[in-house]
Structure formats: structure tokens, C-alpha cells
Amino acid sequence: MSVAALSPRRLRWAVTDALVLTGRAVTHWTRQPVELLIGLLFPVLLVLMFGYLFGGAMAVPGGGDYREFLLPGMFGLTMAFGLEATYTAVATDTARGVTDRFRSLPMARSAVVAGRAGADLLYSAAGLAVILACGRLVGWQWRNGMAAAAAAVGLLLLLRFALIWVGIHLALVLRRPESVMVLQILVWPVGFTSNAFAAPETMPGWLAPVAQWNPLSATVAACRELFGNPGWGGDSFAAQHALALAVAWPALLIAVFLPLSVRRYRRLSR
């Protein structure tokens, strides 16, 4: 049988195996509902803190409602902060030998990492739905119609999907769940060194370009534009081409870290 004839079968095999492992993660969530609820409600806590505790001290560029300015930034941060959960799940399976058991089974090599990516994307979509509903309750709204709002949600999930592969790769490299602190040290500065809360133009000269070219900044700026919410604006290339960069950055991250994750998984010692 030719390779061309085998390829569709192998693809179906890989997709089926990935779906089975995605279902495994969903089953874990149903058996640990408290942990699931805490993860989903944490972004809501952030919205309430920033929206009500600090909102009175924030000035919206060009005027307008602060919560409409805040929420797209919170949506983007929620996508970034979920990286620790991805890392912990993969590193825990690796440390406990679960990954080695999967490697001994007749399944597609890519299924384990693809299944984890699919499960985490479902979890992220649920978290995004919760924070969107919370935003509506506190007065946020989109103003450019459903199509533009759906495009903004798509960009947020695209960023999350890209970051999932970053988390999977780092977990397969470090392999220790307790090393998640290293990841948190990276995620939080990257999350706040963006345009989510402050205009890059107000930052020190050396830091402003970092914030402008932050992938999170591109997604947040593009979402503000699509939702019709107030934003920082700016004359830089990154500010003027936020929509293009909101697609280009995640695509680049996926192109780099997806094959690296699959390769690293294949090379794990038994």
C-alpha cells in the first residue's frame, strides 16, 4: 500500500487518539469540580478587583467607560495566565510516569500533546465565556456587531492555543511540576508588560518597545478595535497593525513550539 494511501488512515488514527486523551482530561475535571470552578472564577476576581477597586484612579484615553477599556485587557491576560495549568498537567503526567505508559501503547506519537492542547483549549474557552459573561454584568459591551466580536474571541483563543504549545514544550523540557514557579516568574511580567493596563508610550524608553511588540499587546489592541472599546492608539507600527500582528504572533509561536513539543515528547526517555 502506498504512503499516500496510508496518510489519511494515520491522520484519522492520530485525531482519534487525541480526542480520546482530550476526553481523559475532561473526565478529570468532572471528578475535581472544585479545582475547575476555582480556575474559572479566578479571572472574575481579577475583573472585580481592577474594575471596582482601581477603576476610580484610571483615566481612559479619550474619555469613555473604564470597564469597556479594561475588559479586553483582562481577556488577554486570562489567556496568558492559563499557561501554568498547562505546564502543571503535562509535567505531572511526565513525573508520575503516565507519559511513559502512553508511549508504550499503540497510539499516535502526537496524540498525547495534541490531546492536552485540545483539552486546555476547551478549558480556556469555558474560562473566556465566564469572564465575558462577567464583563456584561459589570457594564462592558461590544459595539461593532456580533461578527467583529466573534473575530475578537477567535483571536483570543488563537493566542491561547499558541501559548498552550509553549507551556507543553517547557513542561516536557523541565518535567517537574514544582518548577511551575519558574514559569510564573516569566508569565506575570510578560502579562503586565503589555498594553493591558498602561500605554506603552508612558513606559521608560527601553521598555516601551518591549510592551509594543508583546504578542499579548497585539491581541489586546486588536480586540479593543474589534469590540469597539477605547484603546491606547499610538503611531508605532505595532499599534497601527495590531490585527495583523494578533494573527502573526500566535502563528509564529505555533509554528515553532508545536513541532518542538512533538519532537521533545518522542525523545523522552522511557
UniProtKB/TrEMBL annotation:
The answer, when asked if Cell inner membrane is one of the entry's keywords, is: no
Gene Ontology CC, one term = ATP-binding cassette (ABC) transporter complex
**One Pfam family, short name please?**
ABC2_membrane
What is the annotated localization of this protein? Answer: Cell membrane; Membrane
One of the record's GO molecular function terms:
ABC-type transporter activity
Its keywords, alphabetically, are: Antibiotic resistance, Cell membrane, Membrane, Transmembrane, Transmembrane helix, Transport
Stretches assigned to the ABC transmembrane type-2 domain:
34-268
Main subcellular location: membrane
The membrane spanning regions, by residue number, are 36-57, 69-90, 111-133, 145-168, 180-199, 242-262
Q: What kind of membrane protein is this, topologically?
A: Multi-pass membrane protein
Supply the InterPro entries for this chain. ABC2_TM (IPR013525), ABC2_TM_bact-type (IPR047817), ABC_2_transport (IPR000412), Nod_factor_ABC_transporter (IPR051784)
UniProt GO BP: response to antibiotic
PANTHER family reported in the protein's UniProt record = NODULATION PROTEIN J (PTHR43229:SF2)
Q: Into which family does the record put it?
A: Belongs to the ABC-2 integral membrane protein family.
Q: What is this protein called?
A: Transport permease protein
Please give the organism: Micromonospora krabiensis
